[in-house]
Amino acid sequence: MYTKVCLQLCLTEVANGLRNPVLMAHANDNTHRMFVAEQVGIIWVYLPDGSRLEEPFLDIKKIVLATPWVGDERGFLGMAFHPQYKHNGKFYIYYSYVDKKKLEKIRISELKVSASDINKADPHSERNILEIEEPAANHNGGQVLFGLDGYMYLFTGDGGKAGDPFGKFGNAQNKSVLLGKVLRIDVDGKSPDGKPYRIPLDNPFVSDTKALPEVYAYGVRNMWRCSVDRGDPVTHKGRGRIFCGDVGQNRFEEIDIIVKGGNYGWRAKEGFECYDIKLCHNSSLDDILPIFAYGHSVGKSVTGGYMYRGCESPNLNGLYIFGDFMSGRLIALQEDERTHKWKKQDICIGSTKACAFPGLISSYSKFIISFAEDEAGELYFMATSYPSAYAPHGSIYKFVDPARRAPPGKCKHKPVPVKVKSKRIPFAPLTSKFAQREWALLGPLTPPPRSLVNSVVQKPLFQLGVKIWQGIPRRPRPGQFKRRRSACGATVRRAPKGVTRKGAPLCARP
Ligand SMILES: [Ca+2]
Ligand SMILES: [Ca+2]
């Protein structure tokens, strides 16, 4: 089941200086622009030449509830363009806010692009789609996407705290609440009862009087990042599947494929194992198991990724690439055509030899927040060295497979030019980034130069004194890194005193 050899990949940094970049999305309008959202509530536009527009696409940080506390899960969390965005200019956002009665909620709303500037949203066009009250600060879900059926899918968290404590058997197993669910709605219609959306007629629980008709799947803890598979470029196999990473409680992180009406097990199960013994042994629990789960020795907070279907790295086709927020590990899954089991392969970034080309880097910031796909299908991830919504230490990296590139000219695309009114800010790798790379190449045992301490070395994360959820990074305990196995099977020796392995390549020194 496990392959010992790791998959060597390289990276190019495409953006930096971002405050907890939670997503990057394209509008599917042939402009090949990328829209990058920060947790504080700002969306930036990046042009195909790598430059960023000085004026944001949208700035709603005044309405969004976000704090500088490390690990705070509230904020601007999701965005998706309408499948017909090119024609109707509509897009959807998902964020935390506090209402007039001081209740914390998540809100999903629709906005439109400005009539006068293609690179700006019209902030006055906001139309409320759905609001859900949040009983605790953590587990707010945040993914919004459109399936190939044209419907909107929303991924809510179980509400928060630990062990899904709300109600008789938690929120996730309770189909009469919207928390702990995958919801499916039609934003192009209205309900007879006045809701600003329609319920698709084939939603699985429309005739179940004990269930809300929006529910598409349940038993979800806190799915953090889901994506739609574009399918094999030739056979289209796999097209339309929705993959999600569901963050675990104390023991397991999992990857799921979402099916209509599916029960994803939480809080009866965590990964493949029982969490609530009583619910787990209930004979009516007809749950769908993950395609893959891993224990907390590997990572403590899964970040769901994408199935690679791009053009530039043909060997990656059919690999589902995801990561772990806490450990910084990157992992690929591949389905065995015969057995339909998913095989894991660890990804190594940072082979100095394989990545020794101009523009390629072999280190990255450790906290992996999100993954993204550009209009052409190439894959990226967003990570930061300091996970506070106010700290501008987030970067975006593109995956590059050094083993096999597409033939020259094969992956060329012609972006439709866009009229730009705002100033363009060209991409500049931070000078310290180069130094960071140099340091990282030396391996985790070399203390970084003083000038890098802010960007590379984890500050005491408890200085703010707030612990939002159980998995907040800590300073390493003495000996914590002693004799631990790295992703490549190499023994990682003890980190120098006070220095964590952040920014260090996971497999640079096998
Ligand atoms: Ca919550
Ligand atoms: Ca599950």
TrEMBL record:
> Which InterPro entries did the record assign?
6-blade_b-propeller_TolB-like, Glc/Sorbosone_DH, Quinoprot_gluc/sorb_DH_b-prop
Which species is the source of this protein?
A: Sphenodon punctatus
Q: Domain Glucose/Sorbosone dehydrogenase, which positions?
A: 18-344
Upper taxonomic lineage: Eukaryota, Metazoa, Chordata, Craniata, Vertebrata
Q: Which PANTHER family match?
A: HEDGEHOG-INTERACTING PROTEIN, HHIP-LIKE PROTEIN 2
| Name the record gives this protein | HHIP like 2
